Amino acid sequence: MKAGERTECGSGVLFEDWDFPSDDSSLFCDSSTPISRLQGHITWLRPQEICQSPVVFPATIHHSHAKQGLLGDCWFLCACSMLLKNKHLLDKVFPPHQPMWGDSKYKGSFHFHFWVKGHWTEVTIDDRLPCIDSVLCFSHCHIPSAFWVALLEKGYAKLHGSYEQLWAGQVSEALVDLTGGLAECWSLSHFGSEEEEQHTSKENHNQARRQRLDLDIIYPLRATCALSCSTQSIPGGDSELGQHHAMAVMEWLDVKTVAGSRVRLFRIRNPWGRCCWSGAWTEGGAGWRSLDSVDASDIQARAAQGDFWLDETEFLSQFDDVTVGYPISEEGHLRNIYTGNPLPHRHHLAGRWHRKWRQYADRPPENDVRRQHYQAIALHMWKVEKKHFHLSRTVNKPPCASTHCHAHQREVVLPGQLEPGHYLVIPSIYQPGAEARFLIRVFSSSSSSLSALSSPAPLLPLTSDGEWETSHFRGSWVEGSSAGGSRNFPFHGQNPCFPFTVCEEPVTAGLNIKVTLRQSRADTDLLPIGFHIYKIPAGEQFHSIPSEDPVASCVPHCHTPDVSLSCSLPCGAYLVVPSTYQPDCVGEFTISLARRINRRVVKSQEKLGKAIQEVSHISMMRS
To answer: Which of 433, 461, 489 delimits the end of a domain?
Structure first.
């Protein structure tokens, strides 16, 4: 039988989808997840075979919410919560007025639309659903007679190839697939108790302030944006929650206490359909006594099965990540989550990275199971002159905006407010020589255009004119003390640091710094190496790597004997930080630092070298 073939069933001819048949090929891909133990126990039934009066949507919104079954797809169910808050999005994904059970036009099929690589793609399924003992074994609604969740989950499973492919994923990906919009993920893992925050490093403290500010910014959009939270630990000491579990934020509001202060509360829905929290704002908790009794009763009454309340302090300390989906209007326009402004202008451009003969490849961490199928990607942006600019000179300058680092994600988002003008956007993949396709999307509040460069500018040759002062410094990466790895790892700050100064602006325009990092290893045993250059803030002494992003970088890390970077830096104090890609890689290296000089500002190389040796020694010995 072929796809779309129909078979007799009762009084009508019902559709059977043989592209996604009712057998193990639609359930499993490699039997690597816990649902593999269900083989041989699953039967496929249509809704009218499961209950007497099936419906797509129940009468009340509380009964419409998804409840997770035996499949670990909480990330998908969190994104489904946004559909219930936005009927125009629900109608886009699950078109209304489809013939249902009891209708003379019902044929046993349902149609869905998912956003795939820039286009809305239709997926058609039959309504045979996996069951155990005549009960749905995967996701379902809170009442057994409603089937929109189970049907949508089957359509999404067909899109991915099998149900097992939905085991573990990112909420941001499902939000994009269900809305065609954007989603950003913020890390909250550094939040903790007041005592812990007192010991937080300056870098993490600044990041924490940014995260809190972001929550305040999107507060006016809380009713229209999607918000979810996830944990990689066990909040509240509840052993049921486990790891890598995502939950939906149904609402959040600021409430005035009887003492006159304000408290921010979040109503969280657990896709498991049961409460897993025992904090101050659970039923009968001490937190409710700080509110007016009428307000407390009204707020508590909003919680449905699987919901629980917590305050902002609990929220920030108990969850590791927050995902925000951009609001989408009925006209299909996104709204900026930072400003609230509509983004009605959109463009997208497809491209690909081509494999080259040099194939020095960095690998993602082997223990990063959930992201091992993605290449690490990043976006960098430079402001350029109208149509005419030199590519090499441009990219050797710090970008005006960029993602923090290469991330093993399906999609990275670069938000920002840009002045009118022309910009160069470069998508990059961390692994040199890797081949992949990509899609660049631009959403803007005003008219814009997007096009690819027709012919890249030639590489900028290293000029030999002028006078250069060259210094050579030796160092080593020592396991456990100075082998911190790349910026993708938390111990990057342990790497050796080499300070230098740029005394004056170059007399002529162009490059004034050349840095080469060479590793002392055999060509058959090379480590992936690279380096960053950081600016030391004016008036500050060198103690550690600054929290700001580097001003220049020689990345991605390459399995080559040496790597080099030429750039133009304004006067000031800087650090060169060499690193291997992964931490605890042992090796020795040499750094060659060449500075373009004017005879009027030549400084003592001996004095500079002594200072560098003393500072780098302290850095390498730091635990």
So the answer is: 461
